[in-house]
Amino acid sequence: MGTCNAVNPKLPPTDWGHRGKISPKPTHQPLKTTPGHHPIGLLWLQTIFLICFILFGASLAMTCGIYQILNTVNGKSYVGHARQIEQRWQQHTQDLDQVSALETRQYSLRSEFLAYNLRTVVTKAGRHGVFEFYITEVCAPEALLETQSRWIETLKPAYNVTPVVRRQRAPSSPAPKFWIYYHNFEKLGYLPIEPLLYHDKITSEYGKCLSVSVANRGIVTASGQPLYVIVGIGNRPRQYYLWGRFILEEILPSEEPPSLVYHLLADGELLKTPQFLNTPDFQAFKKACGYFRKGAIACGATPFQETLETLAKNHQPVGNTLDFSQLLEHFYAQVLRINPGEAGIYCQQGLLYYQQGQDHRAIQALDQAIQRRPQAAMAYYYRGLAYHQLGQIPQAWSDLQTALDLLKTQEQPSHLTAIVQTLIAELPPLADIHFQG
Prior knowledge:
Layout: H1 41-45, E1 51-54, E2 65-71, E3 77-82, H2 85-93, H3 99-103, H4 108-115, E4 126-128, E5 131-138, H5 144-155, E6 178-184, H6 185-188, E7 209-214, E8 226-233, E9 239-253, E10 262-276, H7 280-288, E11 295-299, H8 304-314, H9 324-338, H10 343-356, H11 359-372, H12 377-389, H13 393-409, H14 414-426, H15 430-436
Parallel strand pairs: 6-8
Antiparallel strand pairs: 1-7, 2-3, 2-5, 4-5, 6-11, 7-10, 8-9, 9-10
Helix pairs in contact: 9-10, 10-11, 10-12, 11-12, 12-13, 13-14
């Protein structure tokens, strides 16, 4: 396969015009692109199993309890619960101004926000557009479910949709005690926090909310249970890492049956350093789970949960900040120490360095990716962008042309090919470059 990743080219989206907020200002005039058009972003956003860690300002005062969102036009409302209500409001309203919000499946509340033209991110109580955001009752975390049930019974909110469990669990099957969210790097094409680095609204504060969309309807009754995020990456050996621990709070079905997607809203945190899990105990645990598949996996009582709890506790971030770029840089280095032959990781390294404005390091990493996988179209593409930032136009032209040729032969999505063609067209003709030199 001619891609950076082992399976497909679903890399995180980048803004090719200015790299994004995390990178230094480039010294060379960047190539122009269509505003808001991310060549790989649509593939990423359409993935059903989408992890999106939302960032919030550290100055927000967080409230644990029950909240209500009221549509003042039709009188309909939603009653929810959260350990951090203000973050949950921001989670509900994040990215409503993006085209992707209209293209992806939403739960009923977000659909109403879109229908009634709410496009701002909400972080505090009050009126926002035609919607009123209230804190209904403050309570302890252990009382959230009971208190929410009481308010739902009282208010009968129209936007609260109760997921239908179509098949009852057999009496002999134990109820799940916790859940694993398995993030398959090769299938998804990015790591859990990578999308943050290419988001034009990113801040340096570390948020503690997780939004996951899954198709496992068995999770509809999982509110209040722990969820551990585990990443699988690489081959020979396959490497597994614990990335975070969360508590499932709200579980919201999409509006498009029969193949429902469930939107999980959870509270917790990423680990400051992902923890390597490849031990005999983990292998036995994975086998007991029926091995891992992409998405949510129900787990019964097992001693290995204590291991996961200990790792999460011992490696939780200090304070409310986490350096995402540094976390990824260290993680890539760790994966490559175990297996230096992972071409896809070198490509991801190159993309990270390019976004940071470290063009020489980006080229070095992408050289390694191309050496190990000569048909990696996106490695040539990003190396071409890095060369352009350094003003090395002949090399940029050559790499972009190679990327274009590979994309055409690999039958990749047409919008990728079109964008690379546009970038090449904006470069001076190769004959003029040699003449000027």
